[in-house]
Specification:
Blueprint: E1 2-6, E2 10-15, E3 20-25, H1 31-48, E4 52-56, H2 65-81, E5 86-90, H3 93-96, E6 105-108, E7 111-116, H4 119-132
Parallel strand pairs: 3-4, 4-5, 5-7
Antiparallel strand pairs: 1-2, 2-3, 6-7
Helix pairs in contact: 1-2
Organism: Ohtaekwangia kribbensis
Protein name: STAS/SEC14 domain-containing protein
């Protein structure tokens, strides 16, 4: 792994073996920090020319409705233009247990989203997804 960005609330690394990005939220960020983290993720996607991302959101906390809306509209549109194609998201165990199995792997247009309870499972899924597209 190659560190791209690291501060008090987020860490972004690049997996050089499988060419995907890993974003780990360290703490629940305020709105500005959340948006900065996703903006930096977008820059990393452009820099490394990959649209495959593992997001460890187990420490993310609850987002405001405004930040949720921003992330699925404004940010997501920019990310898709940058080649965003796959996301494996790690959530806390209590959230994971509430997600129906049928919704843990979803395709929305050209995007594939998968939700996991463990970081290791998310990494393993992304490694397999990356190998199948090489």
């Amino acid at each position: 792994m190659r560190v791209y960005f690291d501060n008090d609330f987020v860490n972004i690394e690049y997996n050089t073996d499988y060419t995907f990005i890993v974003l780990k939220w360290k703490i629940a960020p305020c709105s500005d920090d959340f948006r900065q983290g996703l903006h930096t993720l977008l820059l990393a996607m452009q820099h490394f020319k990959t649209g495959k991302v593992v997001v460890d959101a187990s420490q993310l906390g609850t987002l405001s409705s405004e930040d949720q809306e921003w992330s699925v509209t404004s940010w997501a549109n920019k990310a898709v233009r940058a080649g965003y194609s796959h996301q494996a998201t790690v959530v806390s165990k209590d959230i994971f247990s509430k997600i129906p199995k049928s919704e843990r792997l979803t395709n929305i247009g050209i995007l594939t989203f998968a939700v996991f309870e463990s970081f290791e499972d998310a990494i393993r899924w992304m490694e397999q997804a990356t190998q199948s597209y090489q």
